[in-house]
Amino acid sequence: PVNFLFLLPVFLFQMTKSVTNPEELGGLASQMTNDYGHLALQGRMAAATAEPEEIGFQIKTRVQELGHGCIFLVQKAGALQICPTDSYTKRELIECARAVTEKVSLVLSALQAGNKGTQACITAASAVSGIIADLDTTIMFATAGTLNAENNESFADHR
């Protein structure tokens, strides 16, 4: 399951970046859905073999919560494709991406509780999640035009 958890922040970054190019969201949402399906299967196996039993339940619950977050994210991506200029939907998509990032870290912590060897994975994923959150915030401000340009250059020049 950890492979998907490492790829998910990349998808989330691409989704939030695609706020300015909503036509890219469909492919990203489809890929994330397929990858989550693989995670769900692997998560079920991890939950079944986890000791103690409470850890298995925690893994199962957190993978399900991540799935719900992914559903909301895909729905917001679809809504943005329908109305690509709606700034409210853009903000909702970014918020859903942040919520999914948080759910990823919860899944990783549940996996760590069941397997002490995943600490390095959790540390790396946490660092990536932090970078993505910073990039999301910068993209949001840059897209809104609130960042000060140094040489009268626009965000589009650097995107």
From TrEMBL:
One annotated GO biological process: actin cytoskeleton organization
Keywords: Cytoplasm, Signal
Signal peptide: 1-18
GO molecular function: actin filament binding; integrin binding
Entries under SUPFAM superfamilies matching the protein: alpha-catenin/vinculin-like (SSF47220)
Chain ranges of the Vinculin-binding site-containing domain: 15-116
Gene Ontology terms: cellular component: cytoplasm; focal adhesion; plasma membrane
Cellular location(s): Cytoplasm
Name the UniProt record assigns to this protein: TLN2 protein
Native source organism of the sequence: Poecile atricapillus
Phylogenetic placement of the source organism: Eukaryota, Metazoa, Chordata, Craniata, Vertebrata
Name of the coding gene: Tln2_1
